[in-house]
Amino acid sequence: HHAKSNLGEIVITLITFAIVFVLGVVLTCGLGAFLISPLAIIALERFYNSHRENIIAAADAAGVPRLV
User: Fold this and answer.
1) What is d(CA 40, CA 32) in angstroms, rounded to the nearest whole number?
2) pLDDT tens per residue, the chain (68 residues)?
3) For the chain, N or C: smaller number of CB within 10 Å?
4) Cβ-Cβ contacts under 8 Å for 30 (sequence gap 6 or more)
5) Angle at 24 between CA 21 and CA 28, to 5 degrees
6) Helix axes 7-27, 32-62, angle to 10 degrees
7) Helix (H) or strand (E) segment spanning residue 59
């Protein structure tokens, strides 16, 4: 439910990652993947942390069980 309600922001984030990753890999003959991959993981973690409460609330509303 959270992803459906924030589809625009998620799509823009993923397209931005794809463009940066492709440019970094192509322009550096593949070496950019070693720099961009950790940065992408950090950026996705920050995105998750900024939306964490909404994601958990949507999961609770849908009845998704939590791992303890």
Assistant:
1) 12
2) 667 777 888 888 889 888 988 888 888 888 878 888 888 889 889 988 988 888 888 888 888 888 86
3) C
4) none
5) 145
6) 170
7) helix 32-62
* Structural contact between residues 20 and 36, judged by C-beta atoms closer than 8 angstroms: yes
**Residue length of the chain:** 68
Count of alpha carbons within 13 angstroms of residue 35, beta-carbon side: 12
How many other CB atoms are found less than 10 A from the CB of residue 58? 17
Q: Copy the structure tokens of residue 17.
A: 């990652």
Q: Could you please report the per-residue DSSP string of 6-58?
A: THHHHHHHHHHHHHHHHHHHHHTTTTHHHHHHHHHHHHHHHHHHHHHHHHHHH
Please name which of 7, 51, 25 lies closest in space to residue 59, comparing C-alpha atoms: 51
